[in-house]
Amino acid sequence: MTNPKLGTCYYPEHWPREMWEKDALRMVELGLSWVRIGEFCWSRIEPQEGSFDFEWLDAVVEVLRRHNLDIIMGTPTATPPRWVLDKYPDMLAVDKMGNERKFGSRRHYCFSHLGYRKEAARITREIANRYGSTVQAWQTDNEYGCHDTTLSYSMAALIGFRDWLAQKYQSPNALNKAWGNVFWSMEINEFSDIELPNLTVTEANPSHVMDFRRYSSDQVVAFNSIQVNILREFTSKPLIHNYMGRITAFDHYDVGADLDIASWDSYPLGFLEMVSDADESFKAKYAYQGDPDFQSFHHDLYRAVGRDRWWVMEQQPGPVNWASYNPAPLKGMVRLWSWEAIAHGAETVCYFRWRQAPFAQEQMHAGLLRVDDEPAPAWEEIVELNDEINALTTIEQVTSDVALIFDYPSQWAWEIQPQALNFDYFHEVFDTYSCLKKLGINVDICSSDDKKLNDYKIVFAPSLFLTNNTIENCSAHLVLGPRFNSKTKDFQIPNPLPPNVSGLNVVVERVETIRQNMSRRLKKPGSVVRWIEDISHDASVIEETECGDPIVLQQNNKTYLAGCLDQEAKKRLFKKLLKDQNIKYLEMPDGVRQRLTKNHRFIWNYSNENQNIDGISLCPADVKIIEKR
Ligand code: GAL
């Protein structure tokens, strides 16, 4: 392990050539090691089909390398120029309402379009060939799935989907059976009878939609792997993709399996505003800091996706432009977010972007430098951070006692059939995560078939759609439910009824969902919310409703939740589970979080108030690093 590095996202094509040298000098002065370039510059390197202008990019690479800056080169495939669209007018993604997503911003391509895939492969080969031996890392495309771009209802998708189904089912009758197409006379005679599952009169068959979700995820994997295979011909340097926060429409573990490092783009304030489920008062309380658990959730998730190697490719440095409201971070938060990432094992944190752009869509988005070239407020925080990093002894990560499963197909399944307006898989997993973090413990996020699951003392698998052999044979204490294994892989109700897991005599006989304001009180403080299962069982009852309905049960090495618990009930249960497994926990003061590594204890304060923990006081946005001796 080496000490973490800092970097920035740079768009030399936005600035006159005379500025590049000084920019590089100032990057070095700030202590940056990495510069990401190239991911949106296709129209400048290939203004017309087959006519290339690499001279300017060669010059940029030369300047940066002369200053010993390491380069992450992006493949520019997220922004195909106008002439590519003229060549393939049907390459545009199509939204659920059947509307083409037009040229004029970015990510307008459809992953299924074979012509565009060829075009993306061609430009990737050109760049890989030119810079394969010069740059130090590669980024494929940019933020797959962002702006709701995984699912496309185009003709290319329809053709691809039919073919995918024919390969999967081999015969129309096998598909009819798996989907239950006898219902409503939906049976097909040929694979060419299949439509995409949009614009149906009422809901489409969930089995149909689930297969379309799997197909769509596979197209992202296939699109990425084309670039990976080409890049590997020209370089042995790490290949990376920059994922986003709470984008769940494709399976990131599958994309990550082809890459060397996972990275993600961390915009704490934008995410709190735009993708958080929190209520208004929470959003107001953390408006200048972000949700205290959202960033670390993704750090832990992408550590798993990157098989322990991960970066922050874009870190918010000031107000962004794309949320409903765009406050400036509380002074100190850029440093805090950076330390939080580093504590979770980030090898590199890059700030987006070097200099604010005076033109186009993101002119209201802060950079490290202002438009007039003066340092923006984040600059000073990075100077401080860099000194601190240089003074720190090597950070070594440790395996946690607790794993939490995050599973993309479960997200698709419960999006397709939520059964209640307020049921969402990401929310269930994140709520579990957040409760564990308030107890001060490290959490490793894992896929449902992670071979390491046996190494943990407790494995939480909230609302997992399908069980598998790894889970069935796992020796850790398993915390399952609600909805665990409650469909077949074809999306039908299984018989025997769920959860149908060995060593747990629980049968879910009926489920009901209730409104947000209709929680059902437990005998002990706290409530069941959203989802409640009627069960028969011969397990020990740990929690029950005031009416005596069993809600938390235990048998052998399993705990089953027959409903969603609110935070109060969760906390009580989790403390018991941790205690039973001899795992030390510590209740965190409001907004304070920590991470323990082999030799360090990192503590930070997201709250607006001074906080105290173990005699250590933290002002708002404070970070304390305690070296264990
Ligand atoms: C990211 C994206 C960047 C930039 C940034 C603005 O999602 O990768 O290109 O748009 O957001 O916050």
CATH superfamily of the domain at 402-580: Class I glutamine amidotransferase (GATase) domain
The ligands found in this model are: beta-D-galactopyranose
CATH class term of the domain at 402-580: Alpha Beta
Structural class: alpha/beta
Q: Determine the fraction of residues in helical runs and give it as a percent range.
A: 25-40%
Backbone CA Rg: 25 Å
The shape is: globular
CATH topology of the domain at 402-580: Rossmann fold
Share of β-strand residues: 15-25%
Sheet having the most strands: 8 strands, parallel, barrel
By DSSP (H or I, 4+ residues per run), the number of helices equals 18
What is the β-strand count?
24
Report how far apart the termini are. Answer: 19 Å
Oligomer: single chain
**CATH architecture annotation of the domain at 402-580:** 3-Layer(aba) Sandwich
**What's the average pLDDT?**
98
